[in-house]
Design goal:
This protein is mainly alpha-helical and 306 residues long. The protein is 38% helix and 7% strand. The protein folds into two domains: 114 residues, Cytochrome c-like domain (Cytochrome Bc1 Complex, Chain D, domain 2); 107 residues, Orthogonal Bundle (Cytochrome Bc1 Complex, Chain D, domain 2). The strands form three sheets. It has a two-stranded antiparallel sheet with strand order 1-2. Strands 3-4 form a two-stranded antiparallel ribbon. It has a two-stranded antiparallel sheet with strand order 5-6. The two termini are 34 Å apart. One heme C binds next to helix 4, helix 5 and helix 6.
Length: 306
């Protein structure tokens, strides 16, 4: 939800008036559209309403200089992200990688890949420092955003970032983000003469999901490649982190797990094991997979998590 930073007094009075009217109807627990729950208070909504838009709408008032950011960064961020944003011990790098997006192994950072400065502000505000998210005040977030952009050579050291100029700072990769023109489509419910559900498999091809009429064996035959096996059998847990499964793309998780050696990691995937956070079933619970297919899907997860 976006709201204007400037408060319209007349608007506020109107909202208050209608709130108190609504209050009499809503204050009873259990009264409401579905007969339970209570409407969220303005205060509760404000606690969640932290998103910001590329044009700056939603930003709180505040400001911070690159110089301020440097101090905060050294104290709260450099231990993981490195003094120059180079990343330490497998933690993500925040700078560098310019011009690498078309390489076989692109180096994606705030400077080389991200689209909007508001995203940097929002990410830091929402999620960092990793061990204490939401602990920074707006001025600190402005200063850190400015400093991360400075580390990417995008602004000068004397820059002071605030809610009115943040949106003017553009990131180099912004033009490469394009609106998705594909139309939304709705599933149509089948009521008669439908396909045998056992013959329908969900297969991922690139970024699009398509339903194909294929048996599981055929999928394996056609695409024994690690990615296909992963999509079919492992992603249920490893995309979301269900039951404690290490998430694909989580650099830290996977680099830590790999310290025991890839052969142990393969063996755990094939034979299954009880780990510290949960149970990895043998072959993800799909005994029909060959050891090679499991190893290939492990390779795929590792490759996607670097
Ligand atoms: C304890 C280690 C740690 C500390 C300290 C830390 N971060 Fe992070 N940071 C991470 C991890 C891990 C990720 C990746 C999280 C993910 O992908 O889910 C990350 C991601 C980021 C990203 C996104 C990088 C990308 O390209 O996806 C930014 C920006 C960032 N951190 C900024 C900061 C700032 C600013 C601070 C200091 C206020 C900070 N971090 C402190 C561990 C840390
Ligand atoms: C039902 C959920 C589930 C499915 C499906 C699943 N996994 Fe896992 N996997 C887990 C959990 C949970 C862990 C973490 C266990 C722990 O370390 O506590 C894990 C851990 C792993 C690890 C890390 C091993 C290590 O030594 O640290 C690998 C590799 C792995 N899974 C591969 C796979 C592969 C390959 C597939 C698909 C063939 C798959 N998983 C399917 C739940 C699942």
């Amino acid at each position: 939800m976006f709201r204007s930073r400037k408060c319209n007094v007349l608007g506020a009075v109107t909202v208050l008036a209608s709130l108190s009217l609504a209050q009499s109807v809503w204050s009873e627990p259990g009264v409401g559209h579905y007969g339970y729950g209570q409407p969220a208070t303005e205060e509760q909504i404000a606690g969640w309403d932290i998103d910001v838009r590329p044009d700056g709408l939603g930003l709180p008032e505040g400001s911070g200089s690159v110089e301020d950011g440097e101090w905060i960064y050294e104290a709260k961020c450099a231990s993981c992200h490195g003094t120059f944003g180079e990343g330490v011990d497998g933690y993500p790098s925040l700078a560098g990688g310019e011009g690498s997006l078309t390489d076989g192994r692109p180096h994606k950072t705030v400077g080389s890949y991200w689209n909007h400065t508001s995203t940097v502000w929002d990410y830091i505000n929402r999620a960092m420092p990793y061990t204490a998210p939401r602990s920074l005040n707006p001025d600190e977030v402005y200063a850190l955003t400015a400093y991360v952009l400075f580390l990417n050579d995008l602004i000068d050291y004397d820059f002071v970032m605030d809610d009115s100029n943040l949106a003017e700072v553009r990131l180099p990769n912004e033009p490469n983000f394009i609106p998705d023109q594909r139309p939304d489509t709705n599933n149509e419910r089948c009521m008669s003469g439908c396909k045998d559900p056992a013959s329908v498999t969900l297969v991922s091809i690139g970024p699009e999901l398509v339903i194909e009429e294929q048996s599981i064996d055929a999928v394996i035959e056609v695409a024994a490649a690690g990615e296909a096996v992963y999509q079919q059998y492992c992603q249920l847990c490893h995309t979301s982190g269900l039951a404690g499964a290490p998430k694909i793309g989580d650099v830290v998780q996977w680099s830590t797990r790999l310290t025991k050696g890839i052969d142990t990691v393969y063996r755990h995937a094939i034979e299954g094991y009880q780990g510290e956070v949960g149970v990895m079933p043998a072959k993800g619970g799909f005994a029909q997979l060959t050891d090679d297919e499991v190893r290939a899907s492990v390779d795929y997860m590792v490759q996607e998590s670097q």
